[in-house]
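Notebook entry, structure prediction.
Reason for the run: the old model in the group folder had no record of what sequence produced it. Starting over properly, with the input documented here first.
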Amino acid sequence: MSELFDAVDALVASRSPLPSAEERKRLRTAHGLTLDEVAAALQVRRATVSGWESTKKPTEPRGPEREAYARLLRQLAELYPAREEPAAPVPTTFTGGPAPQEAGTLSTGQAPEAAAMTAHENTQTPAPAPAPVAAAPAATPRPARTTRPSSTPRRPGARKAAPAGTPAGGTDPRFENGPLAVVDVEDGQVLAYCTGGLVLDVPAKSIPALVDWTLREAKLGQPKLSGPGKDADPLLVLTQAALERYGLPATLTEEERLAGRLREGHKVIKQLIRAEWKLTKRGFGPWARIYRPAQGSERACVQLCIPSWHALDTRHWGEAGQLPPAELARVLGVYASRVMTPRGSTAVTGLELMTALHPATRASEPDADGKRHSEHNPGSLGKDPVDCAPCEAPDGHPLLKDLPRFHVRGPAEKLFEEAYDWARPMTDAECTLRHLVGIDVNMAFAAGANGLPVGLGAPTHVTNPAFDPKLPGSWLVDLSHVDLSKVKVGKEWVDLDGSLLPGPFTPKGDRPEGPAWYATPTVAYAVELGYEVRPVEAWVRRENGRYLDGWYNRLRDAYLATMADLGVDANLAPADFLAAMDGYKERDPELAIVVSAIKATVKGGLGKLRERPRGEGWRPGEPWRALSRPTWRPDIRAAVISRTRINLHRKIVKHAAFTGQYPVAILSDCVVYTANGPSPLDFLPYRDGKPLPGGFKLGINPGLVKHEGTQTVLWGEEVRERFNAPELNLARYIKDGTVTDVDNGE
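New structure, fully documented this time:
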């Protein structure tokens, strides 16, 4: 009989009631428990507990784990009961400052909830690396989003509960309301949604008045990222309702969109001129900057972001422009606190971050009269642009104006360091395997920038130089003698099947046919493989430094912190990491937008180092606007791409030498292998949980790899046959298997 009772008890326990996923997470975080601690107590994997708390598709515990989990949650619920909502807002006493409902008063209602998460604040220090972040107080979970938040009662001096992951205002009293605000109109009242859930009443009735209010009373902005730098200007994001309120169009005309700005005679621009405000050369566009000339060290500048004018590119910001004001403030606020206040597109912000961490000038030591002067800041690119080397100049550059009009420069005239776009037909043995598995390098180009010496000044031309792997520059050298069938791996020579490997020196993986220009990391890799190099000439930069280290550190920390908020930690075991990455974007779609923006900041910032002409009536041989920037540095871009490609090839060679497996396709930072199983663990050589030294390693850190996608070998052969393209780059389509057209390499 006792056995029957035990069976009945187990059956009842297997159906123990559990609260919602949001409540599960609230109770755990309220008690300060980590996922690892709960997993250890219940004897399950960390990813399993994370799945139980997933707000999109929560999994349900079964068997004895369910009974134990339910018991844990019941005990926590007794300690931390859910807060009840008051029937009406409770008035508070207003002290200090203007009277209620006047300029600068705080406007808020009792928020329904806010999930307990770590809210990261940007505590700035002179060091380039990001400062520690502060934790937000625990609160209750928030309900499902609506397309627009309902109007809420406003109480001067009160704070709304912040959504999960929202950074609070800064510790600097000048910027206590955070770096930015989303301006919206509700029931005729203009409101500014700040980070941390704060809402301000906005009394301004025009754009000039809005700029004045922002600078005088809003207390928006962000402290500088480095000692000699400048504080970030406040950012206002205008919703369509705010645009209508202030007399601006909801969308630009086709002519204005192509010009990237509002027409010059618009009434709002006239209002700004009358109020003695100025616009930058790019005019009143999606990212407008409104300023007055600085008086001493005091800046008077406000930046506007207008999502309905396509300020937030959907390729990088997803649906951020369609979010309600409070949630858009959260997304941009997290990005601002971890990267910097956006200065434009993610590409523009990536470039501005370099300058913010290494300003061109600094204050000198006091002179004999006790005065300080502006002087060059060591380690920066300076305040004046420098010419690139002729081989580094893109087509149409003024340095090439004397070339014949239709002259096509070959490898011996032009530095061509680009990411991989390589593929080969599968061997008979590979066709007997079942799956094509793609792995992708996390933040590959950021990892390529880490610790990389780059030139800080102008290049020096030398002939017949001795190659120096520590000297940044461009080298004309013949690498056609490097044979991949016999190379050094570490200190030992190994034999490989060179026909199955991409060449490391060209984006298409071709073997060089003679002298060509290469960046320093490419030539250094030829030496590493065991071959002698004899450059014919070079353009070297003797003034150099690790200019991108602080930039890398800040973007790395931003990426890791946001991925940790999404349940993907840096110290997960391989299987747990793959499980945590599965559907991570669905756990918090808003933070997933931040991840996308951070990655776009890396690639876009590096791309801006060699920005090409953008219309403006430019003709080949004439200078274009970007050339006037000290940060127009195609040599730095080439060095980062070179190192990124070499880092990937080094791992491929290590993997081939150890396993005998070769890639079938590579696109930028994605590599495709054949395997008998659908997981990266089916071909990556892990032993006792440890990866191959120097090879591919699963993980979220920059330079480590994640699962990109899996398709069948039959799929790969079918699409290649369908397009009659035996070398179709399958890495381009491995993620979802959709092939829309023949691969043209674009």
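Summary: Confidence is low (pLDDT under 50) at residues 85-162, 742-746.
The old model has been moved to the deprecated folder.
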